[in-house]
Every structure is written in C-alpha cells, then in structure tokens.
Amino acid sequence: MACFLASAFLLVLQTYAAPPELVQAGFGITLDAVDLDTGLLANVSGDVTTSPPPGTSKRAPHSIIIGVRKGGTRALLEMLDIHPEVAAAATEGFEWYRELMPYSYPHQITIEKTPGYFTSALAPERICAMNSSIKLLLILRDPAERVISDYTQVYFNRLENHKPVQAIENLLVRNGALNMRYKAIQRSLYDVHMRNWLRHFPLEQIHIVDGDALIRDPLPELQKVERFLNLPPRIVSTNFYFNQTKGFYCIRSDGRERCLHESKGRPHPAVNSTVLQQLRSYLQEHNRTFFRLVKRTFDWQ
C-alpha cells in the first residue's frame, strides 16, 4: 500500500506539475486538494478524524475512470455509486492520494475517477506499474460536442472569476485555419491518446462507456459496466428518473433523489456552422482511426 501511495503521488507530480509549495509540503501535513480535471486548487481540510465503519478498510482502487474530461465521468461515478458493492472515491487530486481511498467492506470494489489521466502521456505507464491488471473505465462522447462542452466549462469558470472570455470561434480558428494548439481540440483526438494506453494495457482491460448513450438512457450502459467489473446486477431502471427542468436523468437511491451539480449540463453556445463543420471534418479521420483501434464504432457526427 505504501508503494502504491508513493507511485500514485509521483504520477500526479510528474503528470500535472504541482506548484512547489505543494510538493514541499510532504505527506505528513495538510495539503490543498488539486482538481486534476481543471488544475484548480480547492481548500479542503486534510485532518478528518471520523471513525471508519466497523469491518471496513481503505484499499487501492480495483478500477479507475480515466476520462475523458467533459465526457461524463462524474455522472458515471455517481451512477455506479448506486451499486451496493461499489465504494466510490469522492475526491480526485491530492486529497485522494493522501487519504488513498474511501473505507470499503471486503465485498466491495473501490472506484476512483481522474478525467485527466486519459490525455496524460505519463499516466498509462505509471498506472500499469502500480497495478497491471487493474480494470479501466473510459467514458467518451462525440468529440466535437466534447470540445464545445470543454469550452463552456472554462467560459463559465472565467466568468465566475471575473476574467475575460473569448468567443469559441476565436479559439477554434486562428488565421483562417483550425487552431490545433487549442487544448480542447487536442483532448478530443481520442486515437492519439488511446494508442498510448494500448501500449500498456490490452483492449480487453479497458471498457469504453458511450457517454452520449449514458445521457439518453443510463441503464444499458451501466449494465455493461456491471458485467465488465464482474458485479452482480443491482442497478435497475427505478434508480433513474428524467428531470424535465434539468433535461437529463437524475438518481433515485436509498430512499432519496439527487441530481448532478448545477454546473453539469450547462447549455452550449451556438457555434458558427462553418467553423463547426471545419472542426467535425478534422476530427473525422481521427474518429475512424479510433474505431479501428477499439474495434467498434460510435454514432458521432
């Protein structure tokens, strides 16, 4: 376990280049959590002294949701958390590495998510070194829609922090050509990132969740995940209800109802049709290559 902690911590440092003050803090004192999806710091107290439930322990993850950013990772984790044999890590980032994992019972499997792993050059090798047999979950959506969703998240974050914003067209296109340096586009080159993962893990060890299908009808996608993780079927249709106001499915479990945070499902901006077609055309060849790599297709425009 100590070896896992050290390897995991090294992975984060090398992958995300944490600020020196965090690196120097060490393991023994409180660290500010770092959201690996956004790179933002969040002040989270590290000294939690609550007693664990009897018969539980903290264990290394059996499965990791590796991405993709804005692909539906939070929705997937929340929905899997319905299952009585799943213990879902509540936080990603340094807080997670310090505390390792949530307390879980022997019959449960522990699942963590860090959306930035999929596009990280170092993550596949490091995770393989930690546990070469770990089961990986990858949730993807239409890559062009993912770009727009990525922009939307950053746009609202900047507005909330009173920072200047740009129209999406100004980021997608520079000097009349598609801006290949725009990180949102780079994250949607699924074939490029998948090749890196397949150098370290066999395809059979990576289950791809169709994020667009999960939004439309969660149950079939979650049943596939249950089978991949060798979980007994416990998630049922009554665990979900469609929220007309929000426009997506919410969760019903243990006698209570909950929806994803209000930051999820924000309306996308209208994108100039010529620019959008330019983006989709560029992504098409990458999509075809990705389909060949994973031996399946997706209904992406």
Rg over CA atoms = 19 Å
Q: How many strands, which pairing sense, and closed or not: the largest β-sheet?
A: 5 strands, parallel
Order of helices and strands: HHEEEEHEHEEHEHHEEHHEHHEEEH
* Residues in helices, as a percent range: 25-40%
Note the beta-strand portion.
15-25%
From the helix content, strand content and strand pairing, which structural class follows? alpha/beta
Number of DSSP-assigned strands: 14
* Helical run tally: 12
Strand order of the largest sheet: 5-7-4-8-11
- Unreliable runs, pLDDT <50, ≥5 residues? 1-6, 12-49
Broad shape: globular
**Distance between the amino and carboxyl termini:** 44 Å
Query: If you average the pLDDT, what whole number results?
Result: 83
In short:
With 301 residues, this protein is an alpha/beta fold. Helices cover 40% and strands 16% of the residues. The chain is globular and about 60 Å long.
